[in-house]
């Protein structure tokens, strides 16, 4: 089947979301404005845009963590916005999320094996042997040994903790993984390893990623398509290479110009970017950054 022509796994159409300006205040702040995009099975859509542009709010709506005011969120042909709570819960098995900070999603009181097993229990996998088999398999995939899994999260480095969070997200064999800045909190030398892992997992398991990221080098490296958000709107979208190489859109241009290499960058940005680029290069991904 030609993937380009396949029906999208996720289709978001004219999504709107607002918040009340305060308790008892009838005025509302519009956060998302007619957000529309499509994501094909096995592909990655990079959602980029400056802080506060609405990327995480979009993710929260897709995950059913917050209700949109209006719009369509169609996952594998089903409109999620019309599902009842139990129906959404069943669907959530197929849509998982990885957050920026693994510490927030890994309860320090449980061992890693327990943390990775928990989603299986929550979603009703009753056979302990089956659960144990799936936990070992997924930990192996992310590079954590079963022996290590008897330890508690504090015994792991940041990169390892993010691997564990990824294992927790994958243990239910989801179709779609929403990744909200999954490497931003990691040391630059570790970022490339985790990005490599995510790419490998996508290839092996046919995963579809909605990848929220502010680092444009990472966005370009990881994404088949890019959607650029500004103040709650998608202002530009298209195949990654087109957006990065041929954009004429002023906001996208400004975002790209703010990337190290342009005259406006700060010393801090420059160091961070060089770090990422060096780490990616070390992992043999430099060609991708060059657009080869
Ligand atoms: N629960 C909420 N109540 C009120 N306003 C909110 C709420 N959640 C988010 N916002 C506002 O919505 C806007 C978009 O926030 P969002 O977290 O989606 O941005 P983002 O693009 O993910 O930014 P960042 O890159 O900093 O993570 C922000 O102005 C934020 O203050
Ligand atoms: Mg965010």
TrEMBL record:
Query: Coiled-coil segments, which residues?
Result: none
Q: Which InterPro entries match?
A: AAA+_ATPase (IPR003593), ABC_transp_ATP-bind (IPR050319), ABC_transporter-like_ATP-bd (IPR003439), ABC_transporter-like_CS (IPR017871), Oligopep_ABC_C (IPR013563), P-loop_NTPase (IPR027417), PhnK (IPR012700)
Protein name as it appears in the record = Oligopeptide transport system ATP-binding protein
- Domain of life per record: Bacteria
- What CDD domains does the annotation carry? ABC_NikE_OppD_transporters
One Pfam family hit: ABC_tran
State the family named in the UniProt similarity comment for this chain: Belongs to the ABC transporter superfamily.
* Source species of the chain: Arthrobacter cupressi
User: What's in the keyword line of the UniProt record?
Assistant: ATP-binding, Nucleotide-binding, Transport
An example of a GO molecular function for this protein is: ATP hydrolysis activity
Q: Which SMART domains match?
A: AAA
Q: Which SUPFAM superfamilies match?
A: P-loop containing nucleoside triphosphate hydrolases
* Biological process terms in GO annotation: peptide transport; transmembrane transport
The record ties this protein, via PANTHER family, to: D,D-DIPEPTIDE TRANSPORT ATP-BINDING PROTEIN DDPF-RELATED, TRANSPORT ATP-BINDING PROTEIN
């Amino acid at each position: 089947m030609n993937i380009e022509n396949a029906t999208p796994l996720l289709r978001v159409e004219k999504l709107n979301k607002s918040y009340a300006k305060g308790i008892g205040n009838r005025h509302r702040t519009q956060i998302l404005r007619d957000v529309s995009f499509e994501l094909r099975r096995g592909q990655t859509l990079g959602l980029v845009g400056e802080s506060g542009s609405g990327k995480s709010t979009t993710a929260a709506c897709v995950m059913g963590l917050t209700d949109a005011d209006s719009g369509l969120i169609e996952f594998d042909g089903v409109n999620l916005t019309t599902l009842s709570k139990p129906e959404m819960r069943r669907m959530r098995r197929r849509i998982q999320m990885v957050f920026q900070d693994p510490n927030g999603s890994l309860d320090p009181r449980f061992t890693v094996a327990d943390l990775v097993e928990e989603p299986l229990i929550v979603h009703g996998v009753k056979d302990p042997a089956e659960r144990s088999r799936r936990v070992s398999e997924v930990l192996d995939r992310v590079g954590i040994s079963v022996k290590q899994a008897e330890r508690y999260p504090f015994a792991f480095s940041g990169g390892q903790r993010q691997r564990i969070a990824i294992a927790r997200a994958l243990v239910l064999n989801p179709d779609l993984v929403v990744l909200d800045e999954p490497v931003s909190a990691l040391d630059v030398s570790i970022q490339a390893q985790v990005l490599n892992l995510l790419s490998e997992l996508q290839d092996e398991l046919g995963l579809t990623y909605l990848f929220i990221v502010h680092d444009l080098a990472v966005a370009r490296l990881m994404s088949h398509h890019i959607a650029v958000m500004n103040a709650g709107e998608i202002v530009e979208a298209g195949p990654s290479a087109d957006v990065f190489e041929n954009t004429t859109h002023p906001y996208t241009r400004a975002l790209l110009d703010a990337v190290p290499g342009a005259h406006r960058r700060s010393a801090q940005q420059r160091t961070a970017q060089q770090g990422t680029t060096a780490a990616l290069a070390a992992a043999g991904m430099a060609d991708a950054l060059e657009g080869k």
